[in-house]
Every structure is written in C-alpha cells, then in structure tokens.
C-alpha cells in the first residue's frame, strides 16, 4: 500500500528530475533575444546554433532560454551569458558564426570575447 508520504516523496523526486533535466540549476546561462525585431535580425539562426551545440556536444552545465526585447534594436541579435559568480556578458549583432565562437571560447574555455560585448 502506498502511503501519503510515499506519494509526496515520489512527486518530489519527479520535480527534482524535471528541474535538473531542464538545466535550471546550471552554472552557465545563455539568453538569446527572441523578440519579433530580434527574430527579424536573425536570432532564430543564433538560437539554433546554441540548441544544437548543447544537444550534440553535451554542454550539460548550460541552460538556454529566450529573452524579450532589450530596447537595443541597433545591436540585434543579442546574446547574454551569465556565469555563476561573474558579471553577465552581453554580446551584440551576433551571427551564426559568432555564436559558434561564443560556444567554443566563452562557454567551453571561460574566455569572454571582449570586442563583441555590449557595454
């Protein structure tokens, strides 16, 4: 017979697994601007590069999400990288090729690409 406590323990374990599988506790977070204007500027392509890298390269410590309008249309598409214990880095006018370099240099090696950052 299943007790109420057993049910609660099972639900808790399921919730923890969902949180972990979605990457909510990751040490690195990447936010790609996906407002309408950013999509028009190419952010869907940029998002695809990050999605592909996370799946294919096993970047399990990276949480990927969308963000809304930042009010900086002249800098779109934008990407923000937030790492635990560090100041967030915002990149502007990101292309597919730049996204690939952000993955290789910033996410994998921890080296921000300063010449692409938004101040």
Describe the structure.
This protein is of the alpha+beta class and 119 residues long. It has a four-stranded mixed beta sheet with strand order 2-1-3-4, covered by helices on one side. 42% of the residues lie in helices and 17% in strands. A hairpin with a 5-residue loop joins strand 3 (79-83) and strand 4. The chain has one domain (23-116): 3-Layer(aba) Sandwich (Glutaredoxin).
How does the SSE layout of this entry go?
Elements: H1 4-22, E1 28-33, H2 36-40, H3 43-56, E2 62-67, E3 79-83, E4 89-91, H4 96-107
Parallel strand pairs: 1-2
Antiparallel strand pairs: 1-3, 3-4
Query: Assembly type of the shown chains?
Result: single chain
* Unreliable parts: none
Taken together, the total number of domains comes to 1
CATH fold category name: Glutaredoxin
Instruction: Supply the number of helical segments.
Output: 4
Largest sheet: 4 strands, mixed
* Strand segment tally: 4
State the strand order across the main sheet.
2-1-3-4
User: What CATH architecture label applies?
Assistant: 3-Layer(aba) Sandwich
Overall mean pLDDT = 92
Helix content: 40-55%
CATH class division = Alpha Beta
Cα(first) to Cα(last) distance is: 60 Å
Radius of gyration: 17 Å
User: Please, what is the CATH homologous superfamily?
Assistant: Glutaredoxin
What percent of residues are in strands?
15-25%
Give me the secondary-structure category.
alpha+beta
Shape: elongated
């Amino acid at each position: 017979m299943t007790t109420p406590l057993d049910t609660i323990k099972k639900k808790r374990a399921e919730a923890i697994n969902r949180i972990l599988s979605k990457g909510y506790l990751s040490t690195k977070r990447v936010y790609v601007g996906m407002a309408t204007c950013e999509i028009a500027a190419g952010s869907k392509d940029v998002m695809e590069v990050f999605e592909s890298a996370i799946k294919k390269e096993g970047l399990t410590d990276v949480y990927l999400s969308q963000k809304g309008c930042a009010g900086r249309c002249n800098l779109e598409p934008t990407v923000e990288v937030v790492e635990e214990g560090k100041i967030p880095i915002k990149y502007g006018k990101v292309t597919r090729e730049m996204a690939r370099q952000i993955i290789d240099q910033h996410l994998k090696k921890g080296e921000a690409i300063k010449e692409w950052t938004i101040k």
